[in-house]
């Protein structure tokens, strides 16, 4: 290459870059290198190696830039809530300096025994996989949100980043709060917590889409992104720092939960309450009987039953747990089914035998 050509290199580069041809040119060079890797390995492999090195360096620079830019960590307990949080942060102009993390589990159901250990995680996984429809595929498709991975991610958060944990007044998020604080127990810098139920109750007059029967959201999963934006922008006083004394209390409460063998928990009177696995069974049977009468039908669609239950029982947010209990009642002769169990809206159930309100 002549000195004149060298001196024009930057100008030429800018020309093809601005003209949108650079991507095609690089792609062409790489294709030729691959094609010539057998006949001219010295040249081709050098090109491919340099390309791979530069891609890796670029990725590392981007990740480091993101780590430097992200000064605030927001922790939630469902992917839907995390999505709303990202939108809320965008509206508040804080998206690019914030990182949103979430567990994608349901701590109100399933074993919590020794969940902070691999043995406890395997025990929980086995219990849920045996009972919950499609649990395996759901579990393995959300690797970064699994308990063991989230524990590692939380433990690696540097002390120069702030952490805010978002929750509501329900068993799932309250248990998640205690678990997260236990995982973060060695963190020296402050941790902030906002309970959206309490925060929105204090400002109920400004609540968007207020529901007369249940004006305050019990879970982050039902909080609109606009409401999150409002909380972020104008309610710093409601996002309080957890005192050391409260952190130690939450950590101890987690250790007590970790010793329990219950598989179903509710939030009642500001307490986590352990209830039997069949706690909702009779209410399910009563609801099915009532729906049979109201619709004048022998069989009631399972999806309709679960939809009604989730509407009426605000503390229970798991359609999979309810379907598990319906299938349990089928297996034990309390219900009869018609259709394809395992496909929620493609089978229906009725009360068995003399229990049926429509039988003579």
TrEMBL record:
Domain DUF1835: 73-196
InterPro entries reported in the protein's UniProt record: DUF1835, DUF3658
Domain of life: Bacteria
Occurrences of domain DUF3658 (ranges): 242-346
UniProt name for this protein: DUF1835 domain-containing protein
